[in-house]
Amino acid sequence: MSLPSFLNAETVLYGIIFLAAVLAFEGMFLWWRDTYGPRRRVSKRMALIEKGASSAEIITALRRQTTDVSKSLLPSVIRYLDSRMSQAGIRMSAQRMLTIMSVVTVLIGILFPLVGGITGQIRSPSAVLLLLIFAAGTGIVLPVLYINFVAAKRLKSIEAQFPTAIDVLVRGLRAGYPITSALELVVNELPDPLSSELGLVLAEMNYGYALRDALANLAKRVQTADVDMFVVSVSIQTETGGSLADILDGLSRVIRERAGMVLKVRALASEGKMTGALLTAMPVLTFVSVFSSNPNFYLDVADDRWFMPGVLGVCFMYTLGVVIMRRLIAIKV
Length: 333
Hints:
mainly alpha, 79% helix
């Protein structure tokens, strides 16, 4: 009995390579799950406490560097970067991040023509503009897109953990713990990223901050509706009195009901959000990849008299499209 024609030596070899790749990927996943996965469930604050760090050292390690917006040349850009980097959990200051992106952009604009051997083609204003767009897209736009992605992912994790955190806090308060000890219980029970954020609240309180000020700093860092409601509820209770456990118990139910509605809205708007994300990232990624691999694809037509107006028009339409898409998919519940 003869074997089928497709079962030749080359097909068998490709099949073995495919199975080896699948097994290697599965082995890497199992290693990550058993080795690196448990480490992520231990909050950064707990690791610092285990090492014997003081409250000041914990604050220094957990709190990110801030920037004085009033002394910056681009206050709106610094303010936006500072907000998104706080949500992403990046400790670097916005001023330093912007400086690094600017330096990388300049280096790419200078070194890429030398490395790519296209220095002689960068002569016309259109070619210079094309090089500037490539450098800015690589050094500024792509890092900003990455920061936004990390921030959105981290905020989703915080929103998913927050109802459980409030439930643990309520149980601690009803068991007779003071608010500080109840927060300590929440920090010890929950993983990052919420554990580190609440751990910073505890570190600030131990360092001398009032509860209201420490929670206000938390709301400023995270900037979600759930955290804002929690901070307002605790702040009002500290001034007016009452049972904080009952207040937070009702807040937990409200947040869970709101979370169910948010999930429904996200499910209905998921196609639009994915489309918006792809239409935002793909033009930049496509241009950067094509220009870095084959710059002559654009430089050969850079001297055409319609090239400069076309590039400016595309940049304007891209920016306008991103703004319109963000407004269309920004559904608030």
